[in-house]
UniProtKB/TrEMBL annotation:
Protein name (database record): Thioredoxin
Disulfide bonds: C32-C35
Catalytic residue list: C32 (nucleophile), C35 (nucleophile)
Source species of the chain: Candidatus Gallimonas intestinavium
One Gene Ontology cellular component: cytoplasm
Gene3D superfamilies, alphabetized: Glutaredoxin (3.40.30.10)
Family: Belongs to the thioredoxin family.
Amino acid sequence: MSKNVREVKGEELVELVKEGKTVVCDFWATWCGPCRMLAPVLDKVAEEFAGRAEFVKVDVDESGEVAQKMGIMSIPDVYIFEDGKVKTHQLGYVPESAMRAFLSENLK
């Protein structure tokens, strides 16, 4: 388990988003190879961006209803929520430099 990215259930994600918090959410699954490759990348950049967003991950197998409502069709899929709505997302595995650039561009 990551020290900088906490695992939440779909319902908790919905609550965080409703509260208007800036949330970076990794939709993933245990059986997904690219998801497992992305986990340490996200953990590292989450430490760098601490205080600018809350970093969470949602297992699509455990929280399928929320993933379905979000339209998650492929994983990993990293969403940024801001002011109660989706701001943007990054689909698929990306290296650390690309994830850092994505977050730099999209987090206040």
